[in-house]
Amino acid sequence: MSGFSSSSVAGRDIVALEGVTKRFPGIVANDSVDLSIRPGEVHVLLGENGAGKSTLIGMLSGLQQPDEGRILVDGKPTPITSPRHALALGIGTVFQHMMLVPTLTVAENLLLGGPWWQRPRTEELAARVAEITGMLGITVKLQAKVSELSLGEQQQVEILRAMLRNSRLLILDESTSMLTPKGIDELGALMRRLVEQGLAIVFITHKLKEAAAFGDRISVLKLGRKVGEIPPERFRTLGEQEIVSEIVELMFGKQKDDPEAVERPVRTARAGTAPLLQVADLAVAPTDNAPGLSSISFDIRPGEILGIAGIDGNGQKQLAEALAGQRTAAGGSIRLDGAAIETLSVGERRRRGLRYLTDDRLGEGTVGTFPVSINFFLKQVGAAPFWRNGVEKRAEIDKRAAQLVREYDVRTPSLKTPVARLSGGNIQKVLLARELAEGAQVVIFNKPTYGLDLANTLASRQRIRDTAARGLAVLLISTDLEELLGLCDRIAVIADGALVGTVENVDDARTKVGRLMIGLAA
Amino acid sequence: MTGLFSEVFLSALLFGAVTAAIPLLLAGLGEQISEKAGVLNIGIEGMMLAGAYLGFVGAFYSGSLWLGFLTGAVGGAAVALVMALLCVRIGLNQIVIGIALTLGLEGLTALLHHFQFSRSYPRLPAAEATVIPLLSDIPVIGPAFFKHHLIVYLAVALVFGMSYLYRRTQLGLNLQAAGDKPAALDVAGIDVVRTRTIAVLTTGALAGLGGAYLANVGAGLFIPFITNGAGFLGIVLAMLARGRPIWVLFGALLFGVCLSLTTAMQVAGINIPTDIIQMLPFLAVMIMLVLFGRRASLPAALGIPYERGAR
Ligand SMILES: Nc1ncnc2c1ncn2[C@@H]1O[C@H](COP(=O)(O)OP(=O)(O)OP(=O)(O)O)[C@@H](O)[C@H]1O
Ligand SMILES: [Mg+2]
């Protein structure tokens, strides 16, 4: 493959879509989309949540069949009948939702798909993995169970798996959403190297800066239709800012310099008020492959947002789960409004006003096969007014659910739609609506905007601000430093399960947090 | 009462325990492979019955026990094929189909047996034992464990074969993925429906073999409803074994002891109502469920039909 130079193969599509339409009950997910995917190019696919990006990828990887239109591979019309067929055609995909078996180890997951009569070739795998991880600049624990990994680490494993397959078309569906800024840059550089070797890449992201920095060609989807394309010739002549503003215009029809930049309102210091959440010396025992927590202490006052910065997999998940009561603490105290809650159950903590928005939206956040309406009230099952004497009150549930759908702008065909059918951004809105409802006092957000499009990201951040403005205490865990700087009053940095420092979010916070994250003193 | 703990009695008791355990072991191992792959196979009782009936018929007319085992396994697999078509390929509810198959085969085998043999219950000659030299000379243990039909040793060897399959082979990985996250298996290029079908057919063959052993070696004859819940006990064993074949073996032996004790106490004429004695194995099930049921960990996608691209 490396024999080709990118100019000699450019201009011929590896894969092309012609007028592809895909319908789901109540929705047209793709509406006669044309797309050309060429070797030597990073083709960026942009679009709001629910625009139909993943559906398009589903058809390219053999999971779905188009209702109309056709797919050409090397110029020949080729129905891609199964994922196996897609792999055989050289199409490797990193899916938006995790496609790893949680009960198997990383190595076993990577070996999945080999001929069944063979013994898994572990040694061979280790050698090839070492080669690729070296190139990617990541480390992967081959013997760790996938369920022990953070979502960021899982994402790295999935990228690694796609690389192991020697695909000639590599599809990355929001594969940067869980990576650190450094990891994202490395992935960008890697994509560049790969396309220079003649590979084709389809890259889906919600970060316009990534699109501008890594892309060669950009296509924008909106409500299932392709609304615009910036071909490479034009792409090269534009600067990053021009590209970003052109995309924003295509996507939202409005123009704005840096849509993510928001002035952070200076909140009045509430030093006088008593902290709503007090955590002292919280500790969690480590497991084989997940770090524990040691002597975590912090306070959050009403109306305050405390950020937790750090590289993914340093104990963020453990911290959130220990606070929510999903993970047993080995020691330390947690006080909510002065009362000790460390021995209480998950449900009781929730009743007292502690809310946790997990980053694992489909896994632990919602029950995918239940309708949207029920998912709003999952944590109140059996309670009045939605259940009376153990009987579900449909009318009551639907009434309130309809209200929440409107209030949180959840895009769903109906209240009865299983929540897993919604796009990522809309699942997040369902979670937000549920957790911020009645009685919340302290809210823990774990990576609240990952996988959300720009409009939804901004809306979610506004919700977080509003939450604090209502006088709630907010703990915001995020790997996105910009997000933390834009929202928090103070930012603590977590490394290896311990808080290595806390800084006030004033002028030089960025450098201080940055120094703490790479292990220097602030 | 004095006879109860004599050497002869004890080894007879243990011999009976092994004989009773083998069908449970085969059913449990069979159920385990289905469950690993994400299919809750309630039809296993029906598969055992089909195996018992066809196994008996095969052995009766051919005069060969081995041919009986073969026809039994094929019979069980044939029922499993129906299950695989309806539940794995078409995606119908596994519990409903499983119960339907069990009920259907209870009736069908009883009916066929009635037509063929009317009310007579012909017997097969006693199974020939393979005596293991030296080991069989050990007092008590020897006659209890080392004087069985060859298939018994093969069934025990199968436990280790299954462990190897699950832990060391690609197929083992595929099976586990099919049960825990079928979509991940699918995008890795392995057909989930095919993987699950293989698992269900294996279940059927093992359950059928277990049924054939029960009829041909354990009882020496076929009577309607002969399995008497052995398939369901297999389901319990598989659930408690947490995916480990060796635990199926231990569990099967424990139940085997209970079943054998039931017979032994009746023979010894102990003065307890037989109803209570017959409850013993089921009491053991309940105790095991109370003690270990909480720790049973089942595959995440157990009982959920896989449909590509659905979400
Ligand atoms: N299997 C399915 N069954 C029913 N509806 C579906 C299915 N898959 C997708 N949809 C619907 O199709 C639309 C497009 O979804 P898709 O996942 O392609 O969006 P997306 O652009 O990837 O969004 P996001 O950025 O949030 O991931 C959504 O409205 C979604 O609810
Ligand atoms: Mg998507």
Polypeptide structure, described:
- The complex is a heterodimer of chains A (522) and B (311).
- Chain A has 522 residues and is α/β, with parallel strands linked by helices.
- Chain A folds into two domains: 185 residues, 3-Layer(aba) Sandwich (Rossmann fold), CATH 3.40.50.300; 241 residues, Rossmann fold (3-Layer(aba) Sandwich), CATH 3.40.50.
- Helix content of chain A is 34%, strand content 23%.
- Chain A has a six-stranded mixed beta sheet, sandwiched between helices. Chain A has a six-stranded mixed beta sheet with strand order 16-19-20-13-21-22, sandwiched between helices. In chain A, strands 2-1-4-5 form a four-stranded antiparallel beta sheet, covered by helices on one side.
- In chain A, strand 9 and strand 10 form a beta hairpin.
- Chain A is globular, with a radius of gyration of 24 Å.
- The N terminus of chain A is likely disordered.
- Chain B has 311 residues and is mainly alpha-helical.
- Chain B has one domain.
- Chain B is 71% helix and 1% strand.
- Chain B contains twelve helices and two strands; from the N terminus they run ααααβαβααααααα.
- In chain B, helix 3 packs antiparallel against helix 9.
- The model of chain B has no long low-confidence stretch (mean pLDDT 89).
- Classes of the chains: A alpha/beta (522), B mainly alpha (311).
- The interface between A and B is medium-sized, with 33 and 24 residues.
- Bound molecules: adenosine-5'-triphosphate and magnesium ion.
- The site of magnesium ion has 6 residues of chain A, from helix 2.
Mean of residue pLDDT values of chain B: 89
The DSSP helix count of chain B reads 12
CATH architecture heading of the largest domain in chain A = 3-Layer(aba) Sandwich
Q: CATH H-level name of the largest domain in chain A... which superfamily?
A: P-loop containing nucleotide triphosphate hydrolases
Helix/strand structural class of chain B: mainly alpha
User: What's the count of strands of chain A?
Assistant: 22
Helices and strands of chain B, in order, run as HHHHEHEHHHHHHH
Based on Cα principal axes, name the global outline of chain A: globular
How much of the residues of chain B is beta strand, in percent?
under 5%
Poorly predicted sequence stretches spanning 5 or more consecutive residues of chain A = 1-10
Helix content of chain A: 25-40%
Oligomer: heterodimer
